[in-house]
Amino acid sequence: MRRRRPEKREIIPDVEYNSELVAKLINTIMLKGKKSTAKKIVYSAFEVIKSKKKNIDPLEVFIQAIENIKPKLEVKSRRVGGATYQVPVEVSTDRQVALALRWMSDYSKAKKGKSMSSSLATEILDAFENTGSSVKKKDEIHKMAQANKAFAHFRW
User: Which of 19, 46, 150, 153 makes a 20 to 30 Å CA pair with 10?
Assistant: First the structure.
């Protein structure tokens, strides 16, 4: 028998914007425990957003970008009688945010030739306008779930 699930850790909101979402972004950007470096990257990315979108608060731009990236459905592999099916499953809200932040961070890191803060700002602005790599990733996952809708009855 399995033990109980570990309880969710409380995330302390970041200092500058007092937002848990920004704190989660800082944690996903962070490499090898270098939180201060991750904070510098995120805050300078927000400064770039502030300079490009003068009339909108960068926090609102970021929140809207995350909303545009969050996947509602994903596929999970289920083995049924020797065959493996890709079964579409709804994504929990915690996982939606985690996936959105991870994709945003990964695609920012993948962009070469620019500083991390400018590529992160570009990715956030692209997601805000419903374009960019992370939005494309969400659309791919939704398409895959739609294509495998026939196997939805294997969900349990």
Answer: 46
Sign of CA dihedral 98, 99, 100, 106: positive
Whole-model pTM: value is: 0.88
Q: Report if residue 8 sits inside a domain.
A: no
What token pair was written down for 147? 């294509």
- 51 within domain boundaries: yes
Closest to 56 in 3D by CA, of 138, 131, 120, 129: 129
* CATH number where 33 lies: 1.10.455.10
Residue that wins the pLDDT comparison between 63 and 86? 63
pLDDT, tens digit, 9 for 90 and up, residues 20-65: 999 999 999 999 999 999 999 999 999 999 898 888 888 899 999 9
